[in-house]
Amino acid sequence: MKRVVIIMTLLIAVFAANAQTVGGGGSKKYHSVKKTKTATSTTTKHKTFNRNVFQPEFTFMLNYAYAFAPQHSVGLTLGQNKLGKTPLGWYINLMTGFDFNFGTVGSVSEHGVYNGTVVPFFTGKEKRTRLSASLGMTVNMVIPLYFYMGVGYGYRSLTWEIVGGDWMTYEPMSFAGANVDFGLMLNIKGFALSAGYSTINFQYHELKAGIGFIIKTKKKSVAMPAPDNPDNSNGSGNNTENN
Known about the structure:
By secondary structure, the protein is mainly beta.
């Protein structure tokens, strides 16, 4: 009987100890939880676009002119077809007949009269001098057609040799003064053709043609950074919650 009582007493003591532990007699520990907010990094992107850069078109042409005098001359045209975004351009034209004679002793009229009374004796040799220089502008009317017009100085003389080796200028076919030229130019995939008219004082007249090239520069793509996006993140913070 005593053994039963002792066993029952031990069981009650063990049960009571377990009940005290489960029922709140022990301390309950809670660990702090750390919540971290990580900032999102934003990568700056670069976009590439064509800047509004100056893109000129350069013209190089060889010219030929013919007058019914008759007179033949050749020349060179250099220019630029576009100034920025405008359809306007400029050019320089030089012409020559490669037959020069500026050392005359006088001039004769339509009937070969010199100083009103003397009629020189001619050898039959003659020279036809033609020079001109003009500066003008071009207008791109419609692709691929251009209109050009220029003003400058022109000179044309017909000289005859007289007995004794001197030269005299034949006045009716000799001109000097304002040189005006205008016409049209066609751009066919960089291949240029032109046709026009040239005159000195609107008294001496020529028909002019040209052939050459139009060189177009390439646009350059420039990488420009995009504007920085505002960073909406407030950085990182620590929030501790204790229960």
